[in-house]
Amino acid sequence: MELQRAERFNDAAKFFEEAVALNPDNAAALINQEMNELWRKEHKRLPKFSKNAEEKLKLYHGVDSLIAACGPIDLPEFAMEIAQAFAQTGLYRQSAQMIQRALAYAPGDVLYQTALANVELMAQKPDRALALVSALRPKAAGDPALQVELSRIQAFAQYGKSNFTAAEKILKDEVNRSPGQDAGHNALANLYASYAIQLRDKGDIAAASAQFTNALRVLEDQIRAQPQNPSAHFNYGNLLMFMGDYARSADVFTKVLELQKDNGAALLNRASSYLQSKKLDEAKRDYEDMLSRFTTTNFRVYYGLGEIAYQQKDWSAAKENFEKYLRYVPANSGEAQSIRKRLEELKKKG
Asked: Do 308 and 191 share a domain, yes or no?
């Protein structure tokens, strides 16, 4: 892999060959070998895996186990998947490195370039993000969804440079230009909400309240124009949840479920809204519906059921659900420690 990243593809080939000889079940080595051969011969990306590589991939469950057992894979698609995982955990420099590796094989890929601009934004490097957006603008012509994403990155980069007015104008113009794109409305609402939090943290409660109102108004205007759009209602419900208006958010998620009965995210959010507004029976019904219809491994569901049982003094059910919560929650979750303390308390309650 290191030789290949150093553009020494011929030297890398023999080591991939040795890796496969040592372990014929090493899916990463097989895929890298196929990629290496095609790149050396035709300077092309691997269009699909061989049947042998596909069979070997079935031996592993998910990217984590594949990397642990076989090592990394030098494919742009794989690099982008790892980049996303790095970004989700705040490792933005590592994420950018993986995107750059993907671009080494696909330098003209606009989506990869856009992802890099977004990572630079998240890394609080607004000038880099803005430079990338400027270069990408001509390539986004004719693609409304990409234009909205570039505007979102550009606006939040300006916001990161303390230029809220410029950011607001960029997103307002984008919403007017592409009113059918949900992402534009959501980005503008998020901008107002972010600014509201900033103002609230500075103690300017009145100004913060005005910006939260602006955020709500953006989504309300979208709902009036598109009353049957489940995404508009869903985003509105999320904002109400964030603001702590759980009674209204539960009603909004009910509307989403009327429009989209198989929307598991709306069902989970409605359960959480019911729990926060102390409607325990309704919350329990939704959480149990989640388990029967959508998932048996979501730690948020078991947290909700555990909390309901705890409030209803059903110590046995609380203990069972909190134990399942700990089974599925990410290892680095700060909330997990409080649940462990809760379980110690439940043991004393018998």
From this structure: yes
Domain assignment of residue 16, yes or no: yes
Distance CA 227, CA 207 (A): 29
Q: Where do the H-state alpha helices sit in 46-143? A: 51-57, 62-70, 76-88, 92-105, 110-122, 126-136
Q: Distance (Å, rounded) from C-alpha 119 to C-alpha 99? A: 9
Tell me the per-residue pLDDT of 197-245, one tens digit each, with 9 for 90 and over.
999 999 999 999 999 999 999 999 999 999 999 999 999 999 999 999 9
Give the whole-angstrom CA distance, residue 333 versus residue 289: 25
7 and 150 in a common domain: no
Rounded to two decimals, what is the model's pTM?
A: 0.84
Per DSSP, 237 falls in state: H
Going along 90-188, which residue ranges are E strands?
none
pLDDT in tens, 273-320: 999 999 999 999 999 999 999 999 999 999 999 999 999 999 999 999
Over residues 87-136, the pLDDT tens digits come to 998 999 999 999 999 999 999 999 999 999 999 999 999 999 999 999 99
Count: domains in the chain: 2
Residue in 321, 253, 319, 246 with CA at minimum distance from that of residue 286: 253
